[in-house]
Amino acid sequence: MSVSPAFARDIDGKAIAAQVLSEVKDEVGALARQQIHPALAVLLIGDDAASQVYVRNKLLRAEEVGIHSLEYRLPANTTQAHVLTLIAQLNADPAVNGILVQLPLPSQIQEHIVIQAIDPIKDVDGFHRQNVGGLVQGATVLTPCTPSGCMRLLYDTCGDLSGLHAVVIGRSNIVGKPMATLLLQANCSVSVVHSRSVDAAALCRMADIVVVAVGRPQMIDASWLKAGAVVIDVGINRIETQTGSRLVGDVDYVSARTVASAITPVPGGVGPMTIAYLLKNTVIATRLQLEESRTRAPEPQFA
Ligand code: NAD
Asked: Does pTM top 0.85 for this prediction?
């Protein structure tokens, strides 16, 4: 790794996401020439303000790349049984290629039951246990969008990742754990740091790559970083300011960029990549379904 410059360069998630979206648009165009039109169903349950913004952005980007979207807005008091019935209908509908249930869910609905109900081949979030297991074994599966987006940012920034030491801070099922698995597959030496780690900062200071997904505003500053480290900040936190509020990451950007060689800003770093990889996953899911329908043995014909 190179020695740290005076200030880290920004890793431009918006620009790299635009490249991914352009690739997705080309693939959607190629599928359209075969009369195949990818469609994504998005379920938004309840009134969570952040979820409404995330869903709106996902649907807008889907439209831009030519992916048809179906939006299901359900009230906060929707029963789990109702959600499961809807998912069963979407699973059975050959015109629907991807199903996304926006999290978090209202308290009467159990997240793991809903996720497990989605057909794994339509699970564009990559949260179903079949996809999680396949990811660990290195199979071709639908991989969680945020970690996939972070990997693309890292390849773009570092090139080959083999042999680099990566520290992932956070061990959630949707970011930390799949991120660590993907880094391992890219031949990094991987450490996962979490709320029970002893001297997390010392572990982090050994890392060439630091991926932070904790959900604590500006927790990681320059004192956690080795000179020249590449920093990916997954966190999105809204903090109050004297003039209102603003979004910050889990990394103290101003402090960290005095030591790091490259860093993702918040906003404009990981966020746009998550959406781009959701749409990429929708195309991958469509292709997997096409392949499955072609290889499925024909029904026996009886005279
Ligand atoms: P989570 O709450 O599920 O997990 C947080 C993890 O941080 C836990 O594993 C916990 O062990 C660890 N942790 C907590 N305190 C710690 C400490 N003091 N030291 C070390 N580790 C600690 O959160 P999540 O769903 O993984 O999300 C993390 C952040 O990323 C949030 O701010 C979330 O909003 C954001 N996020 C952003 C995107 C995106 O697209 N940019 C996507 C998903 C999540």
From this structure: yes
